[in-house]
Amino acid sequence: MIRPAAKAALVALALSTTALSPIAHAQTKPTAPVAGVTVPPIVYEERTLANGLKVYTARDATTPNVTVQVWYGVGSKDDPEGRSGFAHLFEHLMFKSTRNMPTEYFDRLTEDVGGFNNASTYDDFTNYYEVVPANHLQRLLWAEAERLSSLVIDDAVFKSERDVVKEELRQRVLANPYGRFFSLNITQASFAQHPYKRPGIGSIEELDAATVDDVRAFHAAYYRPDNAALIVVGNYDEAQLNAWIDQYFAPLKTPASAIKPVTVVEPPRTGAKIVTTYGPNVPLPAVAMTWLAPAAANPDAPALSVLDAILSAGKSSRLYDALVYDQKIAQSIFSSTSTNAQPGIFYVGAIMAGGKTVEQGEASLTAQVAKLRAAPPTAAELAEAKAGLLADAVRSRETIDGRAFAIGYALRTEGDAARANTDLAALQAVTAVDVQRVAKTYLADDRKVTVRYLPESARPAGARDPFDAPKPTPSVTFSGAVTSLAPEAERLAPPVAGAPVAPVLPSPVEKTLANGLRVIVAKSSDLPLITADLTVRGGSGADPAGLAGVSSLTAELLTEGTKTRTATQVAAATEALGANLEAGSGWEASSLTLSIIADKAPQGLAIMADVAENPTFKADELERVKAEALDGLSVSLQRPGAVAGFAAPTVIYAGSGYGHVASGTPGSLPKITRDSLVKTHAAYWRPDNAILILTGDLTPEQGFALAETAFGGWVRPAGAAPAPIKGPTGYAPRNLIIDLPGAGQAAVVVVKPAILRSDPRYYAGLVANGVLGGGYSSRLNQEIRIKRGLSYGAGSSLSPRAAIGGFSANVQTKNESAAQVVTLIKEELARLGDTPASTGELAARKSVLVGDFGRDLGTSEGLGGILGNLAIYGVPLDEIQVFTSKIEAVSAADVQAFSKTMLDPAQTSVIVVGDAKTFGGTVKAVLPGAVEIPVSQLDLDSPTLVKGK
What is the reported pTM? Predict the structure, then answer.
């Protein structure tokens, strides 16, 4: 991960004083609740080794897992001049070889035993984190010490990972219509001198200019014990853990040279400025307004976090209410507050609605900020913002890696892990006057930079890019020690794994209410959090012919007003509880999901029941939501991966109710009327067609009582519930090339129908897909990313449902490599059916499946999702108890037989979306007979996908 772009990422980072740093030190008393939300403290121990390494540990005996994380005090701001992207490049290189670990061996120690590993790069730090079964703790400590002390950086590995980073840049930035805006332009325009202005992901030019000596020098400067913090959270013996830490980390030497700090001081702004930028394939203009803001450790940071929440957190926020709901001038809104160790920025912004201008957005955004300067927020707004932030803090610590992340984030952005405790107290102490004060202090109109983002077609003739191009910078000469992989006979072996820690599996209990509602309750943890999921059979497969999107819109409109609450009242009532209430529709089911603090569950479920039972589907709300959906489609139709996803259902399910875009199309959405939604709701949203799952901190008795109170009065209508939807009856492979001019990358999707959930080969299918494309070490990722650097990631998925099943392999690559990727995917499909998987490969991929399943069981939302799927597909709930044994029972012969029958490459359809002029004849050569469709002629409502045919 690099500097975040979209609001979803910004929300997480913006709450440096809350959601990402909710830690209580061992000696700190729990803070008093605000708005009824109490955030349990995390008790942790800390010490510093003689070599400067900081160590933080927090024991949790309720989990069978442990997370090991190392946070280095080097981020994108430390990239050398002319070498932006170096900190992020190391996020990749650290997973390669060391003196005693060959390349990719780190994945053998993590993913292949049922865990996972990852890393992220921010402006101020780079962190590396793993979650593994607790008996592998010693092995991970050994491996992290290896990475710190003896990383191998050779020319071949450097160039390979540089290619992968360039594909990540293309995917995140160049292939995304707003990637340049969020990842590059906002920060480039906001900082005059501070290196925060440089893109964390780098640039193609600066990455290409780098040499292996540059990289080695960077590693030597920053990857050292006194610039690292080791964080361990999970199930361990404290004395043994400390002994292992001393064994592996204490001997590491700290260089004599000092770490070079960033001392650049960003000058104060002396006036307002407008910066206009342009990008290809931009369907809707966008605008952001930025101000310089204090560092995350500043005493004003909590008030700015609350201000940020008041502006943009949820549908009752000021920006959403004004720009999206009331004025209808924006397709989406966003804001972000300071999260940097050194001064950062605060910004607000919007992607405009169709036909609206950036000037309209600027006027409305300016007015909303001015209101906060002129008058404090209301008591209700203040309480709602705090409740939401504190509830997010509870959710963030539901996992052991979330708790470790909170410790590390507080340390690296605020300089002290203990600040997380005081940050919570400071957040709770924020007053309405504080919010107004920081708005006045930091968000003045005469210190505002406005960043406009327009389509390239709007660029005036001769207009230059407002940002300087990267300047050529000479490489350094590295004269330090260079580590090489030791000969196999001389390598030190990792410690052996300890005795496994048996997981405690949840025991779901169920009953059916008098009205036919099936209720399932399962305790997932002692954290005061409850997830309620109400699922109804039906879904997008039941959309009437020609009206794709009816089920999706029906679900979305549930929260947009009831008989007793307007849309804004639903949002305000939910968010005042610190709750998240979301609706969605899949192919065979639709659902409402509520995440709420346990003691607020009765109030939250009452709102949820009202929304499910009494939606009004007001005509004006429907028209607004349709307009937003159409604007969203205009954005998605400029993303190659999204376009391929839209085409896939028509390709593999043509002639059935599943052969359309589930969320609707530019042609179908305008045709959908209120009557269609009313009929869909009446037919499917009824108690005898629904399942309510309650998970979290509750007993079965408590869950059933909550369900009876909230949903016991839901009246079952006369007549039988609707019959199950029938699946497709035929399929013929076909290949498509969709030309998306200017696309920064190509999407390659290989699809075909597959098994149903009831198929006895279900578990063989899961393992086969795991071998092919399930995880970093799967065959597709090995061949396409790791060996050839052609993509940021390659994977596959198997989707067995009640009436339909599907298989999909998905890769994004540079346009010039699309044909090669098609060939590689088909070769791997053929190999899977022709040759049995090895014993080691099969064991590793099974461990991934079992580990992922176990971690999902450990959160209220994950457990709710598993139980919901079992229930909707008619699978006994005790499948939870036997999942592992059924996975382990799958043999190599089972995988080969499944693959030969169900994953035959000759029976697949291939969809390639990209800039066809860059393909040459290569894609057509590997897909003879493929139909080429210009995106302007793509008709998502036609079975041929071609307008007029």
Answer: 0.93
Residue 441's contacts (CB-CB under 8 Å, 6 or more residues apart) are 300
Last residue of a domain, one of 253, 281, 302: 253
Helix (H, G, I), strand (E, B) or coil at 710: helix
CB-based contacts of 847, cutoff 8 Å, min separation 6: 111, 112, 113, 114
Task: List beta partners, residue 73.
Answer: none
Q: What is the DSSP string of 602-650?
A: HHHHHHHHHHHH-B---HHHHHHHHHHHHHHHHHHTTSHHHHHHHHHHH
Spatial separation of the C-alpha atoms in residues 604 and 600, rounded to whole Å:
6
Residues 62 and 155 in one domain: yes
278 and 246 in a single domain? The answer is no
Q: Give CA–CA dist 811/114, Å, rounded.
A: 24
Tokens at residue 325, please?
A: 């709901």
Beta carbons of 597 and 612 less than 8 angstroms apart: no
Enter the tokens of residue 802.
């009640």
201 and 160 housed in the same domain: yes
- For 655-685, b/e burial (b = at least 16 CB within 10 A) is ebbbbbbbbbbbebbebbeeebbeebbebbb
- The runs of H, that is alpha helices, within 313-431 are 318-319, 358-374, 379-396, 400-414, 419-429
- How far is CA 836 from each of CA 400, 794, 832, rounded to the nearest angstrom? 37, 21, 7
Number of domains making up the chain: 4
Profile the chain (949 residues) by mean pLDDT over runs of 10 residues: 27 25 28 56 94 98 96 96 92 94 95 95 96 97 97 93 94 95 96 94 92 94 97 97 98 95 95 96 97 95 97 96 96 92 95 97 98 97 94 91 96 92 87 98 97 96 87 91 95 94 92 98 92 97 95 97 96 95 96 96 98 97 96 96 97 93 96 97 97 97 98 95 89 96 96 97 98 95 95 96 96 97 98 96 96 94 96 96 97 98 97 95 95 96 91
